[in-house]
Records
---
Amino acid sequence: MVSTESQKSSHSAKSLILVAWLFVGVPLAWGIYQTGHQSMGLFRATSSAVTPTTMPH
Amino acid sequence: MAVLFFLDKNHSLAKPGFNRWLVPPAALSIHLAIGQVYALSVFKVPLTRVIGIDQSVAGDWTQIEIARIFSIAIVLLGLSAAVFGRWLENAGPRKAMFASAICFASGFFISAIGVHLHQLWLLYIGYGFIGGIGLGLGYISPVSTLIKWFPDRPGMATGLAIMGFGGGAMIGGPLAQILMTHFHSAHSVGIVEAFVVMGTIYFCFMMFGVFTVRIPEPNWKPVGWEPSARKSAMITSHNVDVETAFRTPQFWMLWVVLCMNVTAGIGIIEQASPMIQEMFKGRATPAAAAGFVGLISLFNMAGRFFWSSTSDYIGRKPTYMIFFLLGTALYIGVTFTGHQHLNSVALFVLCCLIIISMYGGGFATIPAYIRDLFGGSQVSAIHGRILTAWSVAGILGPMLVNHIRQYEINRGVPLTDAYSTVLYTMAGLLLIGFVANTLIHPLNAKYIHEEQSGTEPVTGRPAHQ
């Protein structure tokens, strides 16, 4: 009986930790996605840019 | 009053069985919120169009006037962290987090009134002054608690929280843009509504941290962990009071270390977009520059966690040695990536991203360095005072970069080469930081108060790991 209660307590603690991390993790992941999406501009712009045949002055 | 009673330090003491992994999310909720300050620039253009809506007209605020809001907030961050650090140690993290949430959200609400009435001074007082106090309190509030919960991995624990400050801009920037677009109309730029919604969201978000944070019992330690297992001359087993720490050479060397690291990093952050476009004219477009700025934010955040966690294994002093030596080499290396030498955008970006990761790492590793040198009892208070180095660097870094660049242009140096002297100057600053870090030695015994020793036997009940 005691071990069942302690198992329940352990499960609820793990669930609580998961919820807590999701609470901060989801907005952070959204922010990282937004920034990562913006960062793609660097690769698109530099890969599509024509490499100059002469050195710029 | 019942709520204030709940905020007392005694009421945030962890009950047996409390899992310490609930504390980092609590700290993150505060830092992710206050990190929004780095995204304040998204309001810059709309704030210059409060009257004209689609364009600036006579009577609208100028960008220079608006830029002062950020400056006031950052200066107040450093000052409030220094002033309230000691109070925080006595009041506990819950009360400090609550005060931070009240100040930060009030900053938004007062600023909303300021925009509505078109009174700029209300934005200075609101977001700048009161919000700035919220930033300072929020920044240092979870640090001491995290270090007490994670004596085995203090770098990783504080790195997790301070990483949130870097990540806050990534949430705050897009969120502000979505809200302003949603509330934009023929009669409004949508800032008033956006400020009110953001103030409310951030207050609720920070309340999660207030209700979740717990402090361990005195001298608590993780099950199976023995402090002596990782004994090092640079890690004290005693506790030093903030006033005593303030008088030690180690405090001031740490101050210089942080100041130099931040000054050099801010130089890149502040000029990232124009620098890449001017050094690689015709190759780096504005879209590429925006992407570069985004990558900088990501590496600034990731570096906070990576470097502070690494410092748990290699030590704080060697970590800063890497920052300063590798940073110096990379700053010099960046000058060779330009069009006259390697002409490589990829190498330029790579060097800058490593530098920025170390800039973030410098912020995140300093609390653990403080804990190693002065003990864990007053880390937040000492950290608060050392953060004044950030305020100084916030002024010094951009000023150095802008003045040196302008000086070079005025004396006829081409725009593509105008950054070389700037980069060499930054490398020089890092060398000063290297010397300061070299001079950091274990604390002299005369500063250690035996009555505050943290070496008593552990009496607290173990909590879950």
---
Amino acid sequence: MNTQVHILPTKPGEDPNRRAHQAQVKRAILEGQAWGLTYLLARVRDRAPYDNYALPNSLEVFEFTLKGLLRLEMMGKPQYAGWRRMFGSNTKAHEMSTWRSRVALKAFASSAAALDFIRADPLWTWQAQPPTIPAGRKDDDWHVVFQVQDVWIAKGRYRWSELLARFLLEESRALHLVGLFEPLPPAGGGSHA
Amino acid sequence: MPKHFATLIWDWQPAGPLVTGYSQNLAQATRRIERGARKVVNLQTHDASADHTLRASFLATSVKGVFRSAAEWLVERVATEMGAERFVTCGYGLAVPESKQRRLGITQRSGLCPVCQVFGGTGCLSGRDVAPAQRQVGHVRFSFNAANDATYGRTADSPRYQFAWEQVDWEQVEHTGKPLLIEQLRFEPDTVLEARVEDADDFALALLWLAGDLISSGFFRFGRFTSRGYGVVRLQPRACLRADLSTLLSAAEPLPQPLTDTTSGHAAARAFLGQEALAVVTARVKPWVESFSLRSAV
């Protein structure tokens, strides 16, 4: 029997590398704009992902609180903690210390509803050969659409959407990545190193 | 060629909650909420169509800001695809801290970027000696439902939100954080958004339609809490009119041409302009990027 305890860290302000983490995100936003738009689709993996936290019962409340949950989940993972400010920052300091989130969230009752939202994006009409978006199911629990405005990070080695996708695939206890769609790939191709 | 005017019309279709308006401090100062109350309320303006009563509203001027952001993003993307590594629009240039401006080549810039030429602006040297000389009034103005500066709707409170870190249950300790209530706006389903454009060349129309697509996708959103599921509005192109002044003033006033079977601004541009909108934007951005490269080389 697995008795491992999973505790979600609580306070978003307990980062000993706060300044370094702020600086790396600031630099990525200033110098690493990828000019690409990416959808990530994730399903709820576990409604009680931590011993001290369970998802709200309402989809609307879940949608609103999800950003905070993901930031807290990232805070406990050293390789991701420094990038959680890509969800936005409001430090009230001067000069570019306030920036908007590079990912917007939207929650849906099922994969069918989430994929309908993605399919309705007019940006698909910009492509000569738009991909076929699957239909999904109407009975497979909550799903979340992440709309990522992409940024090259880690000195251009990979993108914010790739890091977030890996986090959702391997690290998040609340969500699990099930799809990725690119209505606008990064300008200038897939490398920035 | 005579100066042309245009009207672009979209159906305004919110796809989720919307909220805009007062900051917490202003709401307290104006006594719309009690001090310390965790409640977000909307801006209120006088509704001319309802006895000038104060009603929760969504201003067309904020729509212009989002269109401008989307247009800047698009123009910078197009410039990057041309290989312009350090190209920035004036809006972005203004946001960059001074310490970074030289590195990004912003101190060498003069003139208005293609976005400023449509939306107006002072260039990215705003506030310095050169700025007033090149100030330009915007050529586009947004309104709702035939020239209303705002759209009005019903309001309803959100569920009682608590942020994730307020919900964490440590050793069954009861949490004392007050829940947050957000006044959400719901608009009438027949709301339409209009953009009136002076000097309505192909570039201006293509830029507006493509910016409308970026907004409609949900990647660019309106109001507050945009990264938490709020602010998504689908913009469905409905109609367009472009004419010179003599035609507009003629006895037979022209009507906007309906855009049927156009699910996107990209498709609307193809139907109305007979051209690919991205090609039109690229053609305008190219000389600007080239002139910037020349100035950098000097």
